[in-house]
Amino acid sequence: MATAKQLAIKGKALIDGNGGPVLADPIVLLEGSRIAAVGSKDQVKIPHGVEVVDASHCTLMPGMMDLHIHLCMFNNRTFKNYRVAQWEVTPHLQQMYAYFHSQLCFEMGFTTLRDLGQQSTRGLMTESMCAVRDAIDAGVLAGPRIVVGAFTYMTGSHLELIFPRAAERHGFQNADGPWELRKLARTNLRAGCDVIKTCASGGGGTDKEEPDVRNHTQEELDAMVDEAHALHKQAAVHCFTPGAHRMALKAGADTIEHMVFHDDDSMEKIIAAGVWMTPTLAHRTDHAIAIRKDIGTPEFTLKKMKTIQPHCYKTFQRFYKAGVNIAMGTDMGFEPGMGSNAFELETYVGLGMKPMDAILTATRNAARALKRDKDIGTLEAGKIADIVAVDGDPLADIRILQERKRIQLVMKEGDIYVDRRPGHAKEIVHAEPDSWRKIDA
After folding, report:
1. CATH no. for residue 240?
2. Between the CA of residue 219 and those of 11, 178, 246, what are the distances in Å?
3. How far is residue 196's CA from residue 185's CA, in Å, rounded to a whole number?
4. Phi, psi (5° rounding) for residue 6?
5. pLDDT tens digit string along 117-134?
6. What is the longest distance spanned by two Cα atoms in the chain?
7. Could you tell me which of 258, 126, 149 has the C-alpha nearest to residue 205?
């Protein structure tokens, strides 16, 4: 049997993703796709003849994760016009852009993305996203690890209203009643999805729909979560209200998506259940709202986004202080720009989260939420070698994680995909940033 290739990485500092002390002058020794040893240069000796990757000017940290993203959605970095994107783009082109969007995130150090679904007027995009995931996993395409979520929802759900009411629907997109929703969940699971994504309330980014409307009965929600768990898959539930929180918890949801409205009872139940929540706050900022206005989002939606903003911030601050389990997620779709995922972390820090805790939401916590923490999320012996080298100290300034030139090295499973160190020029996106033509009409 061939011996796994060894590789050593030298750094200036190391953030292990567990919240431990920052390690000075680290050495990370790899064997194949996994980490063999981590320690200071005095603790880990590099074997003779082993290739050394010199990132001694950088902070080493685990590859980051975004647990709430919509890669198939039309993003402001690739589309100029909200309505054109919704009405005139084929699902085939959506799939191509989904892969490109994943690369824009990957090149910025996000080695794992949980895509939480999308549809077109011709049907759900589940099979398309599973194909992107599988091609990357097979090594046919270079990209991040993708966990595929599939929209599973009732007629007129928040998730369906992402598309205009007047748009014709084709294909098996929605269902009503527990047995039809079980069938839709099974159809998505047959296609290969990893997560069933549904909702228990209205939302923020849709036209002429209020956040407090109920989506699904308890019996319907129970049925969808049960189908996911029957195949050892996860269920993610969109919740904007305390009532939606209670429904999701009763159904046994694995993750609750968004932090908007809450009450004492819902917060206490969330803490008691130990369920993971993704805040998706970058999606709520003035910056995001300005982007939505620029691409032609209806005024009703813009006003709604602004109205819920302070509630999102207050809920996040209270949940963080109370000890709710938080895993990083952006809800990136129309905005902010794909690849700016770490703006979410800046938003957390701006609202009072400690920088180390913010980084944990995108590393260890995210891995735990995915139930993949045996393999990813931290830099320690035995874990998969998903490693990012950052020029600077993100604990001193979390914003540097959004600077392309600062992301010096991106490694997934022991292979280097991006290398921007002095004297190196390896990229996964070969076009200059934002040099591509945006689709307008």
Report:
1. 3.20.20.140
2. 53, 6, 13
3. 7
4. -100, 150
5. 998 878 899 999 999 999
6. 67
7. 258
Total residue count of the chain as it appears in this document? 441
Same domain, 268 and 412: no
Nearest to 419 by CA among 114, 55, 79: 55
CATH number for the domain spanning 382: value is 2.30.40.10
Closest CA to 336 of 88, 95, 61, 101: 101
Residue 199 sits at the vertex; the CA angle it makes with 196 and 203, to the nearest 5 degrees, is 135
Instruction: Quote the strand ranges of 200-311, DSSP E.
Output: 234-238, 255-257, 276-278
Beta bridge partners of 54: 10
- 73-83 pLDDT, tens digit per residue, is 889 999 888 77
Residue 238 lies in domain: 64-370
57 and 74 belong to one structural domain: no
The amino acid present at 311, given as its one-letter code, is: H
Q: E strands of 319-406, at which residues? A: 325-326, 387-390
| Beta-carbon count within 10 A of 127 CB | 18
Residues 25 and 92 both lie in one domain: no
Q: What is the pLDDT of residues 166-185, one digit of tens each?
A: 777 777 789 999 999 999 99
Tokens 């799939």 belong to which residue?
95
Provide the 8-state DSSP code for 91.
Answer: H
Q: Nearest Cα to 409, choosing from 382, 381, 428?
A: 428
Question: How many structural domains does the chain have?
Answer: 2
Token pair of 388, please? Answer: 């990012």
Residue 430: inside a domain: no
28 belongs to a structural domain: yes
What is the DSSP secondary structure assignment for residue 220, as one 8-state letter? H
As a whole number of angstroms, the distance between CA 409 and CA 260 comes to 35
Pair (72, 55) in one structural domain: no
Q: How confident is the model at residue 2 (pLDDT cuts 50, 70, 90)?
A: low
| Burial readout 33-72 (b: 16 or more C-beta within 10 A, e: otherwise) | bebbbbbeeeeeebeeeeeebebbebbbbbbbbbbbbbbb
Cα separation, 275 vs 269, whole angstroms? 9
Do 229 and 164 share a structural domain?
yes
Question: Is there a single domain that holds both residue 340 and residue 400?
Answer: no
3-state SS, residue 429: coil
Whole-model pTM: value is 0.97
- For residue 404, give the 3-state DSSP assignment: helix
In a domain, 424, yes or no: no
Is residue 307 domain-shared with residue 410, that is, in the same domain?
no
Asked if residue 418 lies in contact with residue 430, where contact means CB atoms within 8 angstroms, the answer is no
Query: Given a cut of 80, is residue 411 above it in pLDDT?
Result: yes
User: Are 88 and 191 in a shared domain?
Assistant: yes
Residue 438 domain-assigned? Answer: no
Beta partners for residue 112, in sequence order:
65, 145
Taking 70 as the threshold, does the pLDDT of residue 369 lie above it? Answer: yes
